[in-house]
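Bug #2210: token dump truncated for Carbohydrate ABC transporter permease?
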Amino acid sequence: MRKRSRQARRYALPYSMGSRVFDGVNCALLLFFALFCVYPVWYTLINAFSDPEILMRKSIVMVPAGFSLENFTHIVEQDNLLRSYINAFVYTAGVVVYSTALTILGAYVLSRRALPGKNLFMFLIWFTMVFGGGLIPTYLVVNRLKLVNTAWAIILPCAVSQYNLIVMRTAMAAVPDTLEDAARIDGAGDIRILTHIVLPCSLPVVATIALFYCVGQWNSYFKEMIYLSKKEMYPLQVILRELLITYTDNTTDAMKMSAAENSNFAPLGFKCAVIFMSLLPMALLYPFIQRFFVKGIMIGAIKG
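Reproduced locally. Full output below:
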């Protein structure tokens, strides 16, 4: 072992001063960008858990001022925020289940080599990635179907992402044909082949695609503003947008009254508490899906 290590050091390329400077600059830049990405989350966290009375007197930059859960108690007192939290969970769960199921079925069909006109279908899918119908035709369709102000207006339109469909189709096409042939000889149909062979082999991709749909819907607010006009149906992100930008809805009016009546109310701390609560579900979900993430993307992207 020592002899091998000596030979390795003998034939190793010299680590020049230029390489060291280059690596040092890269590490410094990566550290700067990491801090640039982490600091907004840290700033939100320390303001959410800081004492509102101290927040009213001075701004907090790096270190939290005391510790208090008062900002989170104001969230419980707001009916619209709690209702929007539940709505966000309902919409996200519906989108994840419905969109992932459609993506799996579409990807399985497109991954079959015996499918007639497969290239034409793939071209049409790619074409919709470049040219879309636009917002007005989509809204007219949703309105004519009487889906406005319903949860289906959020779940049904644009259910399948073309990118996710192509990634999952590529992963399913990589499953060996011998497994499918053996299953068909044993009398298995397409449904059994999909559920017992293709899906277990493509589990990392399925988990990754489900995570994409989950994060995309959880952070969505624009289509909810278009299709929903009842405030009791708003998800959390719409309420959060109105909270951070405008002060016109009932929730913010109630906050103004509570701020005037209660000196222990800090608007900045309350906003940061709401933002923290909106980040918390995805932050808790990601560690369970992270082990599938890189593998799922690589499986779906290596083979075209």
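Output looks complete on our side. Residues 247-253, 256-260 have pLDDT under 50 and may be disordered. Marking as cannot-reproduce; reopen if the truncation happens again.
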